[in-house]
From TrEMBL:
The keyword Flavoprotein applies. This is Alkylglycerone-phosphate synthase. The gene is LOC117646553. GO terms for molecular function: alkylglycerone-phosphate synthase activity; FAD binding. Its cofactor is FAD. It comes from Thrips palmi. Residues 1-41 are annotated as: Disordered. Catalyzes the exchange of an acyl for a long-chain alkyl group and the formation of the ether bond in the biosynthesis of ether phospholipids.
Length: 668
């Protein structure tokens, strides 16, 4: 949307109240206060119809008046309208019942797998090794497909439960909204296996009653005010990539449910070149943010696997992690300040400083709040100049244990590259099936490499594993860094396997999510789940979870299943481990529900993770899917502390999405 199409909604009605370096602004005050505070906000955050401004020289900072918020002045401000890749009508571009773009998918044509479209390097290539692996490992029958149901018709959607007066006030404030069944369905789910299975096979018990598209912070303030006035539930919706059930509607909620879609709040409000920070609206998705920043010579460096579609606000709300966190940090390290709209006011820090010792850091009330306390409207984040050099690498290890020990030593010496990932043997072999047909030279090279590794070095093809690496920075620093890492790897029998293998591994990062849609078509339910774990328990946890899954599958008569893991992040004190699990449901009794069986097995895996010293989640979040374990992770007193915060910020339980802690009634 162009800036000309955005409305000047005026400043929110504010009354500043100081508390430990933060500001809570009341959403009700007299006209004089509104006029004074509107002037402050308009200088800090552009109104909805602000025109794009050219980059201006940065003047010397002026002393702030008491009660104002420290943001760049209008002269320093850059209002950059970002043309989003994803349209407001998401189904113009994205699948309604699967992952990603409509023109991108794994497709089985006869006995050959291919990936369609031109958006990814693997696009329009034949992958001849996959089908044999899928038949042998997962027992698929290429002639037995499970076709998805068609898109529901308008008459199939439940009628919205919404008061006419509420819709009239939304319209009066010129806030775009819809009660269309399709608009509501698209925002009724994220991307859990449960969500996708229901879209293909059944129907949701509850979907939002209305969808609203605010265009700026002030619009969100108005929506939340109206929701409190009419006792309407608000569920924030960003990129829709949640894998924790976070955006699904509580089935027993009888109030009107509004999905607050932040996708139209996608501007970069300003960039501070001197301090290397940028303020952005929360609805901007990762690929749009990076494209706009890179045009100015910057990057956030934050690349979660979902970054094409996930939003900045979603990253903050779930405490997201990116693959290159070793260089750039996780989202909590990137976040400088945040604007957070709650039913009792707007929470934000007073200053844009690198660190404060002013009591608890209120950023951490917002981080991980998962839509239960309010809506993130703007975030100020750190940015970095684009790195001059980027290089991939890979290292082969004789077994997973050797690889884990090597990664631990690299972390101990604080030599991690921007990203380092270790795949176990099952995942390594699976990745090999997604190679396109190589040319003659490729076959010779792969053959020579395999002979050296297996015959001369004595590696077993059924136990070896591979680490993939990404280096970013100055060329000479990368060369030194890589040399040091390879020397450490040699102590654990690791062999450098080249840049091409490393690049291929990371290329698969953004296409692997598409494989689940193909799996469902061939009667395989599959999902990923993750944890963080201390170093001394990493290997044991991986073994225990795989063993538990194997035993439970056997007890249920599941003949064909796949369980693998990878170490995907490393820290001083531990690692993040990702598991991939799926099984062919055709050997289950006819009365069994494949989805229920899978969910029971994943719960058992989660119990094993916790018993083995792992966390409930490293970066996916809790949502509703893992809420039953939340108290065990944070203690009963921790739940009481969270609940007290909830009562203070949201006393009527307007943000009743049900994540983290289940609140059975419609009020607190």
């Amino acid at each position: 949307m162009s800036d000309a199409g955005r409305r000047d909604s005026g400043g929110p009605q504010e009354e500043a109240a100081q508390d430990n370096g933060a500001v809570m602004k009341s959403t009700a005050s007299d006209g004089a206060e509104k006029m004074a505070c509107s002037q402050d906000v308009s200088a800090a955050t552009p109104p909805c119809n602000a025109a794009a401004a050219a980059v201006q020289p940065q003047p010397q900072p002026q002393q702030l008046a008491v009660g104002t918020i420290d943001r760049p002045s209008a002269q320093r401000r850059i209002v950059k309208n970002v043309q989003s890749v994803i349209p407001r009508n998401r189904l113009e571009l994205l699948k309604w019942n699967g992952w990603g773009y409509k023109d991108s998918m794994f497709e089985l044509k006869g006995d050959l797998l291919c990936f369609t479209g031109k958006r990814y390097p693997i696009g329009n290539q034949t992958l001849p090794y996959f089908t044999e692996w899928a038949i042998n490992k997962l027992g698929i029958d290429v002639n037995r497909r499970n076709r998805a149901q068609p898109l529901p018709k308008p008459a199939d959607f439940p009628k919205p439960r919404v008061e006419t007066a509420f819709l009239s006030e939304l319209k009066g404030h010129r806030i775009a909204h819809s009660v269309s069944g399709l608009d509501r369905l698209v925002r009724a789910h994220g991307h859990t296996l449960h969500d996708m299975f229901v879209l293909r096979e059944g129907a949701f018990d509850r979907i939002p009653d209305v969808v609203a598209w605010p265009e700026c912070h002030d619009d969100v303030v108005k929506i939340v005010e109206l929701a409190a006035k009419f006792n309407v539930v608000v569920i924030p919706f960003g990129g829709g990539t949640s894998v924790s059930g976070a955006v699904s509607c509580p089935t027993k909620e009888h109030r009107t449910i509004l999905s607050l879609d932040t996708s139209q709040m996608n501007r970069i409000l300003w960039i501070d070149h001197g301090n290397l920070v940028a303020c952005c609206e929360s609805g901007i998705v990762g690929q749009d943010l990076e494209r706009a920043l890179q045009a100015q010579g910057y990057t956030t460096g934050h690349e979660p696997d979902s970054y094409e579609f996930s939003s900045l606000g979603g990253w903050v709300a779930t405490r997201a992690s990116g693959m290159k966190k070793n260089t750039y940090g996780n989202i909590e390290e990137l976040l400088v300040s945040v604007r957070f709209v709650t039913p009792t006011g707007v929470l934000e820090k007073r200053t844009q400083v690198p660190r404060m010792s002013c009591g608890p850091d209120f950023n951490h009330i917002v981080l991980g709040s998962e839509g239960t306390l309010g809506v993130i409207t703007e975030a100020t984040i750190k940015i970095r100049p684009l790195p001059p050099c980027k290089k991939y690498g890979s290292i082969v290890f004789p077994d997973f244990e050797s690889g884990v020990k090597c990664l631990r030593e690299i972390a101990r010496q604080r030599l991690q590259p921007s990203s380092i990932r270790l795949m176990d043997n099952e995942q390594f072999k699976f990745g090999q099936t997604l190679r396109p047909t190589p040319g003659y030279l490729g076959l010779i090279f792969d053959g020579l490499k395999r002979m050296y590794i297996t015959k001369i070095k004595g590696f077993n093809i059924d136990s070896m594993c591979v680490a993939t690496l990404v280096f970013e920075g100055e060329k000479k620093d990368i060369e030194y860094h890589e040399k040091k890492i390879n020397a450490i790897a040699a102590n654990f029998n690791g062999i450098p396997a080249g840049e091409t293998n490393g690049e291929r591994g990371y290329m698969l990062t953004f296409v692997i999510a598409y494989i689940r849609d193909l799996a469902l078509e061939f009667n395989v339910v599959a999902e990923s789940f993750e944890t963080s774990v201390p170093w001394d328990r990493t290997i044991t946890l991986c073994k225990n979870v795989k063993h538990r899954i194997g035993e439970e599958c056997k007890s249920l008569g599941i003949e064909h299943y796949f369980i693998s893991c990878r170490v995907t992040q490393t820290y001083d004190v531990g690692s993040c481990v990702y598991f991939y699990f799926g099984f062919n449901w055709t050997t289950l009794p006819e009365t069994s529900d494949p989805l229920s069986v899978y969910e029971r097995l994943e719960e058992m895996a989660r119990d094993e993770i916790l018993a083995s010293g792992g966390s409930l989640s490293h970066h996916h979040g809790v949502g509703k899917l893992r809420a039953k374990w939340f108290c065990g992770q944070v203690s009963p007193l921790g739940v009481q502390l969270y609940s007290a915060t909830k009562r203070q910020l949201d006393p009527k339980n307007i943000f009743a999405c049900g994540n983290l802690v289940h609140i059975p009634s419609s009020s607190l």
